[in-house]
Each structure stands twice: as C-alpha cells, then as structure tokens.
Amino acid sequence: xxxxxxxxxxxxxxxxxxxxxxxxxxxxxxxxxxxxxxxxxxxxxxxxxxxxxxxxxxxxxxxxxxxxxxxxxxxxxxxxxxxxxxxxxxxxxxxxxxxxxxxxxxxxxxxxxxxxxxxxxxxxxxxxxxxxxxxxxxxxxxxxxxxxxxxxxxxxxxxxxxxxxxxxxx
Length: 170
Known about the structure:
The structure is a single chain. By secondary structure, the protein is mainly α. It has a domain at 11-61. It has 8 helices and no strands. It has helices spanning 11-18, 25-33, 35-61, 81-107, 120-142, 148-151, 154-160, 164-169. The chain is flat.
C-alpha cells in the first residue's frame, strides 16, 4: 500500500542503489512506483555516462608517453676502470684505519675498561642502599592521592547526568 504522501529516497538509499547494493530492496520497490526518484536516478546515470565520455576523449587526445625511464646503453652504475681501483683503495684505507686502533686497544686495554673489584662489605652496603631506595619508592607509590574527580566532587555529578544516548532518544 502506497501512502498518499510518499517519502522519497534519502541520499544514502540512492547511493546504495546506484552501487548495486542488493540489500536495499525497499529502494528498488520505491523506484518502481515513484516517478520523481526514478527521474533522479536517470539524471545521475546520464551524468556518469557524460563524465565517462569526456574523460575517455581527454585521455585519447593526450600524446602517449612511455612510463619507462630511458637509460643510457652503458648502464647507470658502470664505473671507469680507474674509478674502480680508486674505490677499492678507499675501502681498504677505511678498513685499515679502523683496524689499527682496535688492535692497539686489544693489546693494551685502558683503565676505564678494567673490571672493578668490589669487596663483599661494599657490595652488602650497596645492596642495603638499593633496598632502602626501593622501599621509599614503594611507599610513595602506595600512598593514596585523591583524584581530581574526588577532590572536586565530580564523580557524583557525572553519575547523575543522563548519557548522550538517552538525550538523543528524547
């Protein structure tokens, strides 16, 4: 039964119909009975066909260029033989400049890298200091601090306010 005052399709219903969404059977039924909505769908189809024709004509009028990058016949990374020898010499120099200080360091380690020997008594003192520090941190973390919500009494007001969903339903 069609009411005397017919509701036309929304933009979302038009869009789902135009993309071929089969789930919107109500839109297809409405289009079969409503001349105004059917004319709107036909106007949209004509606009899409016109866009397709114009874009095809534009693309055909453009000169076709290859998308491949042209390279020289010699190859981009091919080096002159003299440059190859120079690059190997440079790499060898960098390697030697790194290896010499490393070898000296391994033969004569500095005092900074020598292992620190700590007596058992000093070790026990350090453990006690660490434990005291950890207990102080634990006391600070376990202290209850009032949250801003509790401090200003906001928790009660938020519980009394209706939620957004309830506002939208009214």
